[in-house]
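Dear colleague,

Thank you for sharing your sequence with our group. We've completed the structure prediction you requested, and as agreed, I am returning the results in plain text so they can be pasted directly into your records. Please verify that the sequence below matches your submission; if there's any discrepancy, let me know and we will rerun it promptly.
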Amino acid sequence: MKKIILMIIFSLCLVGCSNEKTYEKYQTQFYDCFDTVIDVAVYAQSEKEGQRQLELIKDEFIRLHKLFDRYNNYEDVVNFKDVNDKAGIEPVKVSDEAFDLMKFSIDSYNNISHKVNIAMGPVVDMWTEYRELYEGGATKEEVTERLGSPLPSRERLESLRPLLNMDNIVLDEKEKSIYLTEKGMEVEMGAVAKGYATELVAQFAEKNGVNSAIISAGGNVRIIGKPLVEGRDTFLVGVRNPDAEEGAQNSVQAVLAVNETSIVTSGDYQRYFDLDGRRYSHIIDPDTLYPDTYFKSVTITNKDSGLCDFLSTAAFLSTEEEAVNMLQKEDADGYFIDLKGNVSYTKGFENILKD
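Please find the predicted structure tokens below.
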């Protein structure tokens, strides 16, 4: 899993709008989806309506979490864990949402960037085993004693490469089935599932009467409409300073004034471990099989949260020139903080950066 919490820094109170209707903010926070904290704020004209909107958003997140999960089984749900469990055995019929997410991931890999490979499950799992030990306080010597080396060896990583071939993911459009042709393959949807789900949730919410809201699912922010309050034309979203502690006075690197869009950040400062002067983040380059990057964080804007999620990972693992060229083709914009703390951004950010 790869995302960083973008800080929502607006604070809106009960006020009257020009049409004399009154809106109030209602909000909720929950932790049981996509291995992250999800914050939701909606603007409604009554507590009953506000709570209805919050509940339908939460319920839809939970439903999609179960469909996209690769770690747990659920009663009457077929998900990516079932797909992985049947690798090299047989195709698995999945929900329309899971099939469409898989198709989106494969099409984006083929047409946008090879830096986001959802067949990376075995490699991600190996790195996660090391990271969790270091995060738990284990020393280099203790990790070596437990796992045989302080880091995954290149030999062990390379031995997994035959399982990472995206061509070995076979989709059957008619049957809505997914087949991993090689035993031991595992799809890992962390680079795309959360943003994709956030977009589906936002579209579902809009169809069900939500017309002013902000959803923050880890590093995925999706904004519905604009603030329905007097004196506020845009929502304000903060991009975190990767060198500051969360919640510190200098924790906001930039403030974005936005409506009707998505903002997604990938960074090296939430799930990582440091060893011998180098940081090893949770985002793994499919070419090197190591967490190699040119950036501390990359923030992407586009209307579609799923596309932003894919692009943020791809850009994080690319050079800035490669990332900018990719974003131009996809009608998206990027805000980059490199390993030395230098900031750069594409032209679209000039219109949303707040002084």
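Summary note from our side: Confidence is low (pLDDT under 50) at residues 1-5, 8-19.

Kind regards,
the structure core
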